[in-house]
From TrEMBL, chains A, B, C, D, E, F:
It is an enzyme of class 3 (hydrolase). This is Creatinine amidohydrolase. Its cofactor is Zn(2+). Its EC number is 3.5.2.10. The lineage of its organism: Bacteria, Pseudomonadati, Pseudomonadota, Alphaproteobacteria, Hyphomicrobiales.
Amino acid sequence: MLLHHSTWQEVDDYLTRSKAIVIPIGSTEQHGPTGLIGTDALCPEIISHEAQKDADILVGPTFNVGCAQHHLGFAGSMTLRPSTMIAAIHDWVSSLAVHGFERVLFFNGHGGNIATINAAFSEIYADRSLAGEASNRGPVKCKLDNWWDYKPVMDMCMKTYGKGHGSHATPSEVAVTQWAYPDSIKTAEVSPTIAPNGRFTDAEDYRNKFPDGRMGSDPTLANPEDGGKLVALSVTGLKSSFETFAAS
Amino acid sequence: MLLHHSTWQEVDDYLTRSKAIVIPIGSTEQHGPTGLIGTDALCPEIISHEAQKDADILVGPTFNVGCAQHHLGFAGSMTLRPSTMIAAIHDWVSSLAVHGFERVLFFNGHGGNIATINAAFSEIYADRSLAGEASNRGPVKCKLDNWWDYKPVMDMCMKTYGKGHGSHATPSEVAVTQWAYPDSIKTAEVSPTIAPNGRFTDAEDYRNKFPDGRMGSDPTLANPEDGGKLVALSVTGLKSSFETFAAS
Amino acid sequence: MLLHHSTWQEVDDYLTRSKAIVIPIGSTEQHGPTGLIGTDALCPEIISHEAQKDADILVGPTFNVGCAQHHLGFAGSMTLRPSTMIAAIHDWVSSLAVHGFERVLFFNGHGGNIATINAAFSEIYADRSLAGEASNRGPVKCKLDNWWDYKPVMDMCMKTYGKGHGSHATPSEVAVTQWAYPDSIKTAEVSPTIAPNGRFTDAEDYRNKFPDGRMGSDPTLANPEDGGKLVALSVTGLKSSFETFAAS
Amino acid sequence: MLLHHSTWQEVDDYLTRSKAIVIPIGSTEQHGPTGLIGTDALCPEIISHEAQKDADILVGPTFNVGCAQHHLGFAGSMTLRPSTMIAAIHDWVSSLAVHGFERVLFFNGHGGNIATINAAFSEIYADRSLAGEASNRGPVKCKLDNWWDYKPVMDMCMKTYGKGHGSHATPSEVAVTQWAYPDSIKTAEVSPTIAPNGRFTDAEDYRNKFPDGRMGSDPTLANPEDGGKLVALSVTGLKSSFETFAAS
Amino acid sequence: MLLHHSTWQEVDDYLTRSKAIVIPIGSTEQHGPTGLIGTDALCPEIISHEAQKDADILVGPTFNVGCAQHHLGFAGSMTLRPSTMIAAIHDWVSSLAVHGFERVLFFNGHGGNIATINAAFSEIYADRSLAGEASNRGPVKCKLDNWWDYKPVMDMCMKTYGKGHGSHATPSEVAVTQWAYPDSIKTAEVSPTIAPNGRFTDAEDYRNKFPDGRMGSDPTLANPEDGGKLVALSVTGLKSSFETFAAS
Amino acid sequence: MLLHHSTWQEVDDYLTRSKAIVIPIGSTEQHGPTGLIGTDALCPEIISHEAQKDADILVGPTFNVGCAQHHLGFAGSMTLRPSTMIAAIHDWVSSLAVHGFERVLFFNGHGGNIATINAAFSEIYADRSLAGEASNRGPVKCKLDNWWDYKPVMDMCMKTYGKGHGSHATPSEVAVTQWAYPDSIKTAEVSPTIAPNGRFTDAEDYRNKFPDGRMGSDPTLANPEDGGKLVALSVTGLKSSFETFAAS
């Protein structure tokens, strides 16, 4: 059940069955020569939309611009400052809490978001920890799952791509978008085959170290079929995680 | 050309042809008994995605949660505080300016966003007005178009729906989503046929005055065919507006 | 009754009769070769102070610096960032709500303030929409009236000034200040007689397009007598609007 | 020369003679049984407007709502949060700096503002201290004068009112407003003759300790004639202070 | 009793005896050729830690970076913006209020902090003044003591150092740190013997006027023995002030 | 070399040798029946102060209140909201950058800080990524090390404490403080011997799940001798990490 495709009465009905919701959250940033700029938002959107097709899971809108300051050296990348992102997540969760949602699972597609999402959770919890019974909001709980972090997903990544998986513009995320958007498959020659890896700070530093945008990956290994398999594995993980979280 | 379905090199190429981009912007809020909660984000997304199919227009990610505090009395509605929305739009535009974008057209689907989007534009311009040559950002210009405000669109709305058009959960916006998402067409009996109209303040006030969420409208007049016509009219308006703006 | 010229006991008494207050709100910005920099704050102040002379209306302090970033290319113009203005209006209204005021009518003199004032109203309402019964503030309602927007006022402007009325440094607002401050009437030759009109973004852009500060207007048409008539018409509009709002 | 009663060209001319400006700053808060709620804004406004009548001093708009949270227990009092006030002062000064103003003298009427005004100065200076040559703003200097702090003013207060002067709703400030607004002179019996004095925290605490709003004062000692003398003494102090500051 | 060296059960016990706590607060900024950069944080820390040795006083962590933008022209100086400092003090006090602390005595070592600390107190009180019974926090009271402001301390400073005491990098504060940290005593020749005094704005202005960092002082007068005496005098002042405040 | 015990000239000299600095960062929060409330700030302070004794490392002030909202159910715990902590870290780093520091190593003692510290780094980098050459600050790089994360430290923890190490109020951190502050060693009986483990959200939730404050640990295993060994191992790790970072 997609929030955007539902009426308010349908959400009212859903709330009689469950107080939990999934929010896909990603980023809008370069993904190397063959990866789509929307990859990190598209992957959790694709997977969560699949998951709700045969499970009673409500999926909210996709939070599609995240923390990507380090990618601003590449055209099309967009970022929120972490302080803005915290404020926005705070507002999203506070809105959902008004309706009685008590469990919000952020289903994430971008490693660079993890710190700020967790900081946002603390910001939200702090309201109630500081105010106690006088709080303006009920005790909503949040959870962060990365779509690639369920063990079968990561196992397949390691087995299929090995050391070419890397950490940015990975073949797995490219494969997921290829499966979902076959008309948007891009091809390019990459050199070196496996991109360099390492630490980075700001956009200039990132571009200097990773000139085509990839980090440690060979995204040419991606194909739509494997993408479909990864989606299926992650869907299973999400369903299970959601069920446990909703019942917690 | 969709930013989310492009690579950074493709955006680099686009920037040699144009410094302009469209950002669909809407809201996640109840739309009466038959309207989708995502209506205000979906309409500008649908129309702008259509527009870029045969025109050289770059469309960015959809800003999908806006100013909807007055709808929080209905399940599923989500809001940003205006101050949060200003910060987020500021970050989006500042990111695009890094890459050399100089014209950002916000293509809007929600009347309740207009004030805050315009306030955000002033916030962005103020940086440069206060700093002059010492500004941290180049002189990017922003524009706000509402998808329904092109004259042929509004003419068709008035002619087709007359006094049943109203101002929230209108048959025109419902029709657009019906055309794009025929599997999500909802039916319901509404009473009175045309909802009441009037002013409102907060969520409790809104719910008291507009008990099923509609304002002044009879959304049961909507059908997918008319939705398709409205999309086509708005696409024409957007293409023309974008071309003029990009050349300004 | 002017808040600034009253004691707290007099306000206590007023609150037994009415829960409504008027806040004049304007801007401090250039108004062309003959307009006063304070015009947009002075006009609503002049009119609201007149209105309270023979009606039981409480008028608060004038909010005298507003959104005027686009005028910073002309000496003496001052601006708040919209985010600052939202915070300030929030504090003003929250203060008034402590005393039991439930209706705050912002009587506005500057078109550039409209978006931000409306955004501020949403920010205020959002507190209560998000917190419901746990809100830290009672359900105060706000309203925005522009002094020139009452129909008889605008009719006189159109009839008296025609196409020379324009949209900034208009003869009507200049006339109002001439009537109230005859010692500060300025004269200058303007060329062209009617200034250019159009869109603008930041201060540099505005100054380039409107080199003497006027937009679309011929302020030399102003005289104090017409100013007095405009004040009288707007006073009537304000009294009526206030009465209706207070009773709503 | 009043900024609000000047044109931008007149300010341009002024800037060829001086880079200094006066900003009257006060508060909107209860002033006991006979004091006006606007007292703290009116006093610096009255005095600075007098001062510019025969001296080349530019006086800007009055910053009329300040830090008065402790007075919110009395009807009509209004406050900014200190963080809001800092943001607003920052914007005012930044605006003036755009035009080349280099000296901003805040002429203050409220003891409760002093801490926050000084904090705002540090906030403004910190921009440049942290950015150095890369600063977005030139090196503007700010100064705070309280209208009552010039020695001859305080001498007259002590001599005229003695221990009845107190610290809030003082006869001196009441006298200044009586001189300027003789139609708004209020009378009341006060008991005890001299109000209690002491420390306070929030609004509830203040109201409990100072039930009629006065602190340590007997404002019934005020009369318009003394008010006129105090204005004259403070005008002299302001002129001298401004001249020195402008030349610094 | 040091909060940092206690367990939560020990604090629970303390709260049965007292609702008051001391927070040492200072700054990290240059203190001339012989003064330690930590002087302003170390002095209140040293004195408050001494005071709790034989009195039932709970001392919290030291707030060690304060308002020091004007010292940024000298290596090692660090500052918070006043708005950041207000937010941080707000959070510290709000945290303590959760546990039932009702009196928070900020024991200060830096004149440049005074304005912002007082502004922070107003910010904290404003929460409750604006919300009344609906406040999210109980009515905590705050107090600011400067370690040097107890009369016997200042008397000794004047008697011992005379006009060489000055206002920054004073022999008294240097002496206190010499007594506590004899291994960190620094020596240098200073010229002129007594540094210049005066007003300042930003870091560049300060460095220009006070080239070795001192203001009006001759810190070579300091010795550890006098430091010990000053500590003892200030300890007595703090104990007495705390006792009175806790009982208020 | 301790910043707090140095003069500005000594820091000037240091900057000719190195552009790197260590900032100990921790938290003020309950640490179970025997752990000190200051544990998480004390551990990195102890270790970094040891490290600088025989290495040319500059150690700044300790950031001693961090993200601890979940511990507010236990007396004495203090927290910053993550948004406040980001602002404060931003100011600290910006200050250091003024002096030419280019590498800031945050040496952390609290797992709950990690997300927010990393978010703060992104906030800092975003300034420059968004502004490029027009940035107000040079390209400073930040790094986060947890004192327990160097492999030999963690190896000793696992070997010495095994499954009694847990994740909060661990015997290793208690041991470190016992070694440094033998006069503050606390004893208590704990039951169960090894505390429960699990996830948590706000303060109420944490207290319900972990009634004596410990998570998964048996802190009674701690002794000062092991604390000294852990300090030595972490000192070695910090020295090596700092050297590499400073040279990067």
